[in-house]
Amino acid sequence: MENQTTPYRLVLSGLSDLPSTQLPLFLVFLLVYLMTLTGNLLIVLWICTDSHLQTPMYFFLGTLACLDMGYSSVTTPRMLFDFHTQKRLISIQACITQIFFFVFFSMSELFLLAVMSYDRYVAICRPLHYTQIMHHKACVLLSLGVLMFSLVYSLVHVLLLLTLTFCSLNPLQSFFCDLSQLLLVSCSDTFINELLILILAIFLGGGIFALTFCPYIIILNTIMKMKSKAMRSKAFSTCSSHLTVVFIFYGTALFSYFHPNAKDHSAVDKVASVFYTVLTPLVNPLIYSLRNKGIKISLKRSVYGLKILQKNLILK
């Protein structure tokens, strides 16, 4: 980047300027981060070790848990560091790096949620062909495709950011390096960057949105035609967890980026940002654990196995 020979630091506004709130916030978000890593890691371990969960739905759920751990790790450790130092300074290189990983993990999660919708569509609407369509190789290829596409998408934004210069002293009105906020402190013409964001948001974002929600129109139509109440209940239960996660992720993200005056980043916007960057990865494993029958049965088996092991140890 030209005109960057002298060290230039960006300032993150953070969640609070009050010194008395830094330690409580640090402890709260540290606890949230540890719970996020623990919850998602347990989901992955359950799926990997329980042979009853070796199905496409749980394969994608395990992939989602891995993405949630990475997604949370992009923003939360940096936020904890700023709470501890109370300086909130970040270099251009570190800021762009954070943007790259944030965009990569967020896009990967959006694409994966669309893939999971397709998986539910095949399972409910084409159950006789489910094992033929959603075999292990297809699941792996879909996951790799999600990661590769998200990687390319992130690189496009980063390469355009590297052509800009930054000299504004205005702080970023966020607790992490947000792409739209970074463009506001650039001294260069950001028209191409903003145009790319708009075009991709309309076409790519709209496409992902359609791929995520359109299958559920067919799914709901199929479920309503089922004669058995038990079958309808089972079909609804397999979709409810995924739909809950989708609505939370899309709802908070859309509120943060597409409501009027979103660039101002008020206190309400920061709360919404905290929800979809920090709390959503924590909530996802809780939703799947509490609402997913397979995970609950696996948990009961694990608890029962531990009790048997404990009894054997006592008898010895």
Automatic annotation (TrEMBL):
Q: Where are the transmembrane segments?
A: 25-46, 58-76, 96-118, 139-166, 195-223, 235-259, 271-290
Give the Gene Ontology MF terms in alphabetical order: G protein-coupled receptor activity; olfactory receptor activity
Entries under Gene3D superfamilies matching the protein: Rhodopsin 7-helix transmembrane proteins
Membrane topology according to the record: Multi-pass membrane protein
Subcellular locations according to the entry: Cell membrane
Instruction: Indicate the segments forming the G-protein coupled receptors family 1 profile domain, all copies.
Output: 39-288
Q: Which domain of life is it from?
A: Eukaryota
Query: Which keywords belong to this entry?
Result: Cell membrane, G-protein coupled receptor, Membrane, Olfaction, Receptor, Sensory transduction, Transducer, Transmembrane, Transmembrane helix
**What Pfam families does the record point to?**
7tm_4
Example of a GO cellular component annotation carried by this entry: plasma membrane
Family the entry assigns: Belongs to the G-protein coupled receptor 1 family.
Q: Which PANTHER family match?
A: OLFACTORY RECEPTOR (PTHR26452)
> What protein name applies here?
Olfactory receptor
What is the organism of origin for this protein? Hymenochirus boettgeri
